[in-house]
Amino acid sequence: MSTEQPPAPAADPATAAGTAPGVDRPLDLAGIGIGPFNLSLAALAHGVPALRTACYEQRPAFHWHPGLLIDGATIQVPFLADLVTLADPGSPWTFLQYLKAHERLFPFYVAERFHIERAEYDAYCRWVSEQLPGLHFDHRVDAVRWDHEYELFEIDFTRLGGPADDAPAPRPTGADEDGRALGRAYARNIVLGVGTEPYVPEPLRPLADAPNVPVLHSCDYLEHRERLLATGHVTVVGSGQSGAEVFLDLLRNRPLGAEGLHWMARTPAFAPMEYSKLGLEQFSPDYTRYFHTLPEPVRDQLLPRQWQLYKGIAHETLDAIHHELYRRALHADDWPGAVLTPGVTVRTAGRIAAARLELHLEHTEQGTRTRHTTEAVVLATGYRERRVDTLLAALDPYIRRDASERPRVDADHRLVLDPMIKGSVYVQNAERHTHGVGTPDLGLAAWRSAVILNSLLAEPAYRLPSRTAFTAFGLQPSGRCGTVIGGPHLPDQRAPLAPTRT
Known about the structure:
This protein is of the alpha/beta class. It is built from 14 helices and 19 strands. Helix 1 (36-45) crosses helix 14 and helix 7 (241-252) runs parallel beside helix 12 (315-332).
């Protein structure tokens, strides 16, 4: 753990000339990054006039995993898990309001669809982002500091382009060497929602980084789809939902009897996602609060064992793959040219010719090794939390860390900081080690946003349920809204049983 002491408060150079621009009207909350989670926060904050908020994003517009918006692919949570409904179903930013605005409410009702397509979820979020005030795209946040004089966060950003907006807090501070405007905003609190970034396993990183080598992450799949369909042999690596969707899309669109596909993964099976009703209660606020109360070593041991809660594959996708394979076997009167191999790790990889790649494989259970030749590789190997070391470099001495040097995060999704910092730094989708498997789940977006907003106010803006699951996790209360086993809602199990009639 870090033993470095926080630096002493430094005088702000602007104080010599009076109050720095923007200090007189600071934001109550500044969001860094505009993905679904900070978009949810901004949408719910719009309903709280007492809060002055703004969010900054370096991309020119909102897009949610554009490379995986495959035709027919659905999100894995019901449409009620939109940006706001589970905290404020009367909000103007619900998915149903989006359908109403586009005159699709009755067709949606007739369709009886509980899970919507990814492309429609993306379009819904863009609809919100294009109307919601206080969102500033084309703004790259470069650094965040704590100003001890004003007791505010300083947020330095570069404006990358685009039309002028009505940002309430930023003030121009100059221009960089490329002529782009530099600015600074002040905020009492900040929330990090910078999202995740594609993960490429070490053995495949040199090939993925090399130019003109057909090794790509699944996040870029649609951009390269036509080229992959025209390639003689394609290998998909990864056992999660993205890998299954890429494999299924390639399988459906390649020639009958000449599929030329291989799907491999480290997991011992292409396993279904846990989707039982009681299993899904592990994506509830109750479980999140319970998980946060567990000792750090217990949390670290528990997370890897829960992989089927978030790394498995939807039953419908597995059924569709099997159906397509069977259909092809039936019509071609032979096994299709597609191989599915779980329990395999890629040890090393390289090029063996101008248009061929070689993967050195090891089967975990057999202990055997072989070489696999292919012409293209799609890595459905997931995502990792985006590093913010540079962005938060000035705050690093103030961040309290656990035994594994990860930031400590309190129950309100707030980094534990040195008391010298009077403001709060909240995190979204960066606290799986403290809040569990539901951290990246869209179903908890509105609830977490409401928790963050309520923590900023003297009186909560959003009434949140005291209980959200039938399962009682643990024998002791879990936080403010915990349930005690054997409490008033249950009979006294020590009392004698009443006679029963047979």
